[in-house]
Amino acid sequence: MGRLARFWYCEIVQRLKTLGFQFDRQAAGSHEIWFNPASRRHTTIPNHTGDIPEGTLRAILKQARITPEQFIET
Questions:
Q1: Alpha-carbon distances, residue 23 vs 44, 45, 69 (angstroms)
Q2: What is the pLDDT of residues 12-35, one digit of tens each?
Q3: The CATH number of the domain where 65 resides is what?
Q4: With 8 labelled, which of 21, 40, 57, 60 sits at a CA distance of 20 to 30 A?
């Protein structure tokens, strides 16, 4: 397991809020679109129970242009 493993939806959202993201809208199914007005970046987050897979979290961070280090430090 990598250092981005075992994060839950609520933990991810809490850290993204700290980094300036806010809920924008509901997407297809159980996915949400979050937006950062300062960086003008969007990211899609699945709202599922349990752990979010590490690869999915890496894709979320890549889409938001957040490094894993920035995410872990918040």
A1: 10, 10, 23
A2: 999 999 999 999 999 989 999 999
A3: 3.30.920.30
A4: 40
